Amino acid sequence: xxxxxxxxxxxxxxxxxxxxxxxxxxxxxxxxxxxxxxxxxxxxxxxxxxxxxxxxxxxxxxxxxxxxxxxxxxxxxxxxxxxxxxxxxxxxxxxxxxxxxxxxxxxxxxxxxxxxxxxxxxxxxxxxxxxxxxxxxxxxxxxxxxxxxxxxxxxxxxxxxxxxxxxxxxxxxxxxxxxxxxxxxxxxxxxxxxxxxxxxxxxxxxxxxxxxxxxxxxxxxxxxxxxxxxxxxxxxxxxxxxxxxxxxxxxxxxxxxxxxxxxxxxxxxxxxxxxxxxxxxxxxxxxxxxxxxxxxxxxxxxxxxxxxxxxxxxxxxxxxxxxxxxxxxxxxxxxxxxxxxxxxxxxxxxxxxxxxxxxxxxxxxxxxxxxxxxxxxxxxxxxxxxxxxxxxxxxxxxxxxxxxxxxxxxxxxxxxxxxxxxxxxxxxxxxxxxxxxxxxxxxxxxxxxxxxxxxxxxxxxxxxxxxxxxxxxxxxxxxxxxxxxxxxxxxxxxxxxxxxxxxxxxxxxxxxxxxxxxxxxxxxxxxxxxxxxxxxxxxxxxxxxxxxxxxxxxxxxxxxxxxxxxxxxxxxxxxxxxxxxxxxxxxxxxxxxxxxxxxxxxxxxxxxxxxxxxxxxxxxxxxxxxxxxxxxxxxxxxxxxxxxxxxxxxxxxxxxxxxxxxxxxxxxxxxxxxxxxxxxxxxxxxxxxxxxxxxxxxxxxxxxxxxxxxxxxxxxxxxxxxxxxxxxxxxxxxxxxxxxxxxxxxxxxxxxxxxxxxxxxxxxxxxxxxxxxxxxxxx
Length: 779
Description:
Elements (H helix, E strand, L loop, with lengths): L12 H59 L4 H70 L5 H99 L19 E10 L7 E9 L2 E5 L7 E4 L6 E5 L7 E5 L4 E5 L3 H22 L23 H16 L17 E3 L4 E3 L1 H10 L5 E2 L3 H9 L2 H8 L3 H4 L10 H13 L26 H4 L19 E5 L2 E2 L1 E2 L34 H16 L2 H9 L16 H8 L2 H9 L14 H8 L2 H9 L14 H8 L2 H19 L9 H16 L16
Antiparallel strand pairs: 1-2, 1-7, 2-3, 3-4, 5-6, 6-7, 8-9, 8-11, 10-13, 11-12
Helix pairs in contact: 1-2, 2-3, 6-10, 7-15, 8-13, 12-13, 12-14, 14-15, 14-16, 16-17, 16-18, 17-19, 17-20, 18-19
């Protein structure tokens, strides 16, 4: 298609034929040109789209390099090199985008315009040419068909043929003109677009060359540094292989991991390492956790990035001891006021190291902080399910303040019972004494503390009934005779611990000889010689050589808002060095009873004294009887096998019941008629005592000799309050069993209702006297 087509209408027929053949050739060539150009435009579009996708992926790759450079911020060489390379590659990506934009303008846009405009005009001209050619052929045919004798038709046909030929010549010239224009323009359009495309590539590669020419010296210098790094890496590899070989040749059969503690560590971590922790759930599963002693706390982490979980908030308030009564080896127990945590080390040496570390941290905490870092009790949040929930916070705070002042106002309570330190903020509820924080910690080492909660109001009454002066008159009765020097607040901890152990565990300073029986108070008058009456009473036998019973001493914390104390099973509060035979322990919720064994006359006298004092609501006499060896679960064989706790129920005193329970009384021990304290409280209509016994785990399913359980008794007596408590407790028990929540206290509604009944029984007992059974005044 390199020639030009000309047509002037005067050519010979042979020339017309050649022109038509040339036109046909040109038309075929134009069609093929259109196909080629459309294909080239499509390929260009695909190339541009692929290039842009490449640039997008390249940009993402650049972001990855920058992220790696930021991650390597501690390595200046890596960070600088990666940043420089990513910047250079980013410039190349920008150059790529410029190249694709120019390609789109030069190839895609320019050639598409040529195809859509110029070739389309040629096609339109061809259509008009073909149409007028058909009209000319029709005019020729009509002109040939006109009869000779019809002159009028002959003239008309001749006229139409002449007009059609003129139009044909005009259209044919336009068509040829479009062909010649397209032939001349296609050269410039195609070459112009390709030349622009090649110049774009020239600029792209020139920019890349300039960019990498500038980067070349840096890359060469970096290559030299990498050679040096390779040499260093090879040397380090050889050294590590030598160390590895040396370690493999070493005998580790007798070597054991050593872990030492340092109470003066600069980072504040006294000791850290892995320990197994026994979970507090029903399955008692063991989990390996990372433990550490830091900031006067024992904490652990599941993962190193996790926030530490505090096991012991203040080490001064805990004790630690080995555990030999469980199946696993190397176990030890950390006991705090709120929980007991069983831990397991990997070896005996590590166990001893951890025990020593905790003990050293306790001593350091006392030495550094003294009484300044006492843990203040946060007010317990009220529950929305309890009555009088809104607007009582300020009243409760003021009441807590007055309660604390009231306890400190008891004779001797303004100073620590054991060392004389002023303003003590801790208390032993079952002893009814106030203590400083250091003596409280020593008491906790001698006995196993129970759980701490919000104190019931009658615990405050218990504290007010006793006090430091009363207890010291009992437990320090022989100090002057023996010339014992009582430790002072500034004495060494070892001296205080020895004195407290001798005072409460061994009871060396309690008055010997005849046991006083005066109702005026402890240590005033001696009782008459025990006669046959004393012989008629008996209690559990004490094993030979076992020390006398010590009332357990769960310490409780106090601040300006009042006291906290152990509110659950006090039977766990036993001294590890004290014989458990002095506590008449039954199975929890069971009906097990042991037969009474004969004991010496002094045990009978002290047991009878406790028995009578419990009914008379005389806590000092009860404390004195316990100090002289009375069994808290002493059984009066002559009075239906009644116990002091049953007598306290008959006497109608919540405080006496609480005192006996705090000192290990068995809430499920029953008399000869099969009635336990819960039975008697139900019969007598003592709602507050029923609430107390249910909270302490009394078995409400136990039946007496008539086959009646406490609920049946309450229903027969139509005592709505007690029926409500018993049914609620039974429903809560069934719910916990169905959900597998063994050992859990119950839902908030259950706890709120029992808390309200406890408050009412202590502060407004008259509101619960809606039922008065026959014979309730006397046992």
